[in-house]
Amino acid sequence: MMNKRFVNLSFFLMSIFLLVGCEESNMKNKGSSNQMEVTYKEGFPTEESPGLTEFIKGYLSRDGDNEVMKKDDSYVYSVSNKSENDRLVHYYHFTKDQLKSYYQPLVDANNYEEKLLQMNQTDRKEDDLYKTIEKTNEYHLPLISLEENNQLNIKTNESEKTFDLPELMKEYDVKKSDDMVVNLKSLNNDHFVIEIQDFSVESVEGWDLFMTLFVKQDLSNIVISELYDEDLQSKLDSGELKDYYKGFQKVDPSSQYSKMFGNKIIDNKLNKIIDIKKDDLLSKDGKYVYINGNNKDLSGGIQEIQTIKNYAEGNDTSDINFDLDLAEIAKRLDLDTSGNASVEINYFNEDYIVLRLNYKGEFVGTAGATNLIIDLQHDKKIYYLVDLGLLGRI
């Protein structure tokens, strides 16, 4: 009788352990359906794709320039003003075909790093790719100029007004004599966002005062905020920005989350800015978060990416997983290494990631370095082993 009870109890406990083990396995393997087979290729991608186009655009755009519009097959950028002597916002554009023709020599190159550097020379881009937009009204672009005494003149296809910035921003101690610079950060059919840097005023954060102006296309309304999250959040809490939500770029299928501008993502229902942890990295389009992508100790192994929705809601779900097998990559590159490498993310967007891998020597020193392009656009992941010489974040 005792033996029978013992057997029944043992069977019961084994069943419990199996159930718990299966549940833990399921938790660990969430998103495992996204761990597709990997194909390794050496060299630069030879076929055009949306992911490649976005990457090349990001690399070739000048520091601070902002893509503000895509019209048909034409990409429109606002030029970044750097100095108080830059008084007018300028624009340029290029087409998809022009971009493809411009980077085609990179596909055929033997020295990718050298060719990429040549392509990124400012004079060359201005001569062969960037086309200045003279007639801004044809693209419905705001004509923005900073006049004497810090009077901001804005002309759209719908209206024209001059805004007295010292009066509008008097609570921030802005004066007519201040040195400042004006830039266009984003644009949609409903409104546009202007950034003003005042070199003469120090913000509560201890640096130059950065102001954000949300401006309706018909110039009927303007909302002013400092650039940092606390002040922007106060504008969301007050409801001042509620009428601007419809113009924000939606970054998830449910339309609950939107991109205000830059890396500012908000929850439209809760009226809250989404906090991206310092070790995590938001994708360029604002749709995904690379877990530990900003961590200086990022290493190989399984990499996890979440949609902005799952990240914001704290869900324990990996929407995209991929294995960064450093030993396999070193073997394919014939590197004499210990197998360890430091990993840096150069570029991260939907379906397209570019990494920098710096391998350590087998005993001391370094064994070599390469860039790795990870293309997630297909049924099979494609890893391109190609040294582009990229070192920093695009």
Estimate what percentage of residues fall within beta strands.
35-45%
Q: Give a short account of the largest sheet.
A: 5 strands, mixed
Low-pLDDT regions: 1-33
> What is the tally of helical segments?
9
Q: Alpha-carbon distance between the termini? A: 72 Å
Strand order, biggest sheet? 1-24-23-22-21
Radius of gyration, in Å, reads 25 Å
Shape: globular
Give the mean pLDDT: 89
How many β-strands, per DSSP?
Answer: 24
* Helix content range: 10-25%
Multimeric state: single chain
How many independent structural domains? 2
Which keywords apply here?
4-stranded antiparallel beta sheet; alpha+beta; 2 domains
Q: Could you please describe the fold and organization of this structure?
A:
The chain is an alpha+beta fold. The chain folds into two domains: 32-44 and 280-386, no CATH class; 62-90 and 133-273, no CATH class. Helices cover 23% and strands 36% of the residues. The protein has nine helices and 24 strands. It has helices spanning 2-28, 50-60, 96-107, 112-119, 122-128, 165-168, 229-238, 308-312, 326-333; strands at 38-42, 66-71, 74-78, 91-95, 131-132, 143-147, 151-155, 160-164, 180-187, 191-202, 208-216, 222-226, 249-250, 257-261, 264-267, 272-273, 281-282, 288-290, 301-307, 320-324, 337-349, 352-361, 366-375, 381-386. A five-stranded mixed β-sheet has the order 1-24-23-22-21. The model is unreliable at 1-33 (pLDDT under 50).
